[in-house]
Design a protein that fits this description.
Layout lengths: L1 E3 L2 H22 L1 H11 L2 H19 L3 E8 L2 E8 H5 L1 H5 L17 E4 L5 E4 L17 H37 L11 H22 L14 H37 L1 H16 L2 H18 L7 H19 L2 H14 L3 H8 L4 H9 L4 H24 L11 H13 L6 H28 L6
Helix pairs in contact: 1-8, 2-17, 3-7, 3-8, 3-17, 6-7, 8-9, 8-11, 8-12, 8-15, 8-17, 10-11, 13-14, 15-16, 15-17, 16-17
Length: about 450
């Protein structure tokens, strides 16, 4: 067993390091601390932030891979397994033959078999890996689910009490050591505790029941839908988070340069992003993805496994989305830079002979930070939805990589069959809806607090 990092693993852990660095910088600046404290005074923002952290934690667990080498049939197999895969190994091993509904004990579709007399019969075959502890008795399923729900509630209650006690201890210790006695409005910690308790309870409930049931059913090839939904979180977070990081340097450089230097530089940059905006976004992305697919097919020897191939395709998709999504932020930064560059203190800095890049670093960029943060948080949810749309039309992530877009794409035919298979689409929709809604609600609060022109 050897720890192995894919390219996207390195990028998401780098993003995590940037977030930690940003939190450290905020903690050292009194004004920024007050601003972000105002963000989290909102109960909605507190709930949304905890949910986003929960999603990001799952993505990090799925971004630490180990390579296992095994010899089978005189061939060396190298398999990449993440920490999340290790925790959900039972869902991988307990695959079924075909579709099964949530908490079902039999397959969803009937199968044709021959009975002992040689006659043909259509029967619903029992599932192979569920409810063995109750001997597959349908009458005991409800009682068993209620019992395991009680255990999940108790486990979650113990964990949240421990968290409250530890957090309370450090809060009291901080208050006791603080020399300043300035009274500040407390954050809505009770709402945070309730949200955290619900997330722990739901996660524990799903995890306990997943050993004995397919909580969200199985797909066409018998794979557990809960496992697919959880694995898709990493793809959604990567697309939403890393694409914003890729597009940020380009938008900053071109937007500020166009607004500050004006003249022919402004004309060239305006022509560039106007031309990009005139091309339909989906067509531009689809063309770039198809070119990428052609190159990867021609040079199959570049990739050691299908997982590495899928990872490189995801990495290219992130860069393609980043290179085509910067125009909106660039236009916004150009307009704001044009306005700031006419303010008196910037004019005075020019009169004192300060170099342009010094003026940009000290006077222009600090006044654009609120716009950058607002745009990044708002773009996150849009990019998560973009991945679903691109995968739905067949130009998104690799079909072998779990993603909500691939789940929705596969559900097209499932919704049209009889009987209808609805749980794959519903699961992908709920997981994606919660992430996008949380990002949008958090972005609204960030915009309200950090925007200097908003009415407080």
């Amino acid at each position: 067993m050897m720890l192995t990092f894919l390219w996207t693993d390195i990028m998401i852990w780098s993003l995590f390091a940037l977030i930690i660095l940003g939190i450290y910088q905020i903690s050292k600046d009194a004004q920024k601390r007050i601003q972000w404290r105002n963000v989290f005074k909102s109960k909605t923002a507190m709930i949304s932030a905890i949910i986003l952290l929960f999603y990001f934690a799952i993505a990090l667990m799925d971004s630490m891979h180990f390579k296992f080498e095994s010899a089978e049939n005189n061939t060396l197999n190298k398999e990449l397994v993440s920490v999340l895969d290790m925790g959900l190994e039972h869902l991988i091993l307990n695959a079924e033959r075909t579709y099964s509904a949530p908490f079902a004990l039999k397959e969803y579709s009937s199968s044709v078999i021959y009975n002992t007399t040689g006659n043909v019969q259509q029967v619903y075959l029992p599932l192979k890996n569920v409810a063995k502890h109750i001997d597959m008795q349908q009458s005991l399923v409800a009682y068993d689910v209620i019992t395991q729900t009680g255990w999940a509630f108790l486990i979650a209650l113990v964990i949240i009490i421990a968290i409250i006690l530890i957090h309370g201890y450090f809060r009291l210790k901080k208050l006791a050591m603080s020399s300043a006695r300035i009274k500040t409005e407390s954050l809505p910690w009770s709402v945070a505790y309730i949200t955290l308790f619900l997330l722990i309870f739901i996660g524990t409930w799903f995890y306990l029941l997943s050993f004995d049931y397919h909580v969200l059913g199985t797909n066409k090839v018998g794979e557990d839908v809960l496992y697919q939904s959880l694995k898709s979180i990493r793809t959604g977070v990567l697309i939403g988070g890393l694409t914003t990081v890729v597009m940020l340097p380009l938008a900053l450089l071109l937007g500020i340069s166009a607004g500050y230097f004006k003249g022919w530089i402004d004309d060239v940059i305006q022509y560039l992003y106007t031309t990009l905006n005139s091309i339909p976004g989906v067509l531009l992305i689809a063309a770039a993805v198809l070119v990428m697919q052609s190159i990867m097919s021609t040079h199959a020897e570049w990739f050691g496994s299908t997982q590495e191939r899928a990872d490189i395709r995801l990495l290219f998709l992130i860069f393609i989305l980043g290179m085509t999504s910067w125009t909106g932020l660039c236009r916004l930064l150009r307009a704001e830079t044009l306005k700031i560059s006419q303010i008196e203190y910037v004019t005075a800095a020019k009169a004192f002979g300060l170099k342009p890049f010094t003026i940009i670093r000290k006077h222009i960029l600090p006044n654009l930070v609120h716009l950058i943060l607002i745009a990044l948080v708002l773009d996150f949810s849009g990019l998560v939805l973009a991945e679903a749309v691109l995968s739905y039309v067949g130009v998104g992530v690799d079909p072998t990589m779990p993603s909500w877009g691939n789940m929705i794409n596969q559900a097209r035919l499932e919704m049209a069959r009889e009987p209808m298979v609805w749980w794959s689409l519903l699961s992908a929709f709920i997981f994606m809806f919660i992430l996008v809604l949380s990002a949008n609600l958090f972005a609204d609060r960030v915009q309200w607090v950090l925007n200097p022109r908003s009415e407080k």
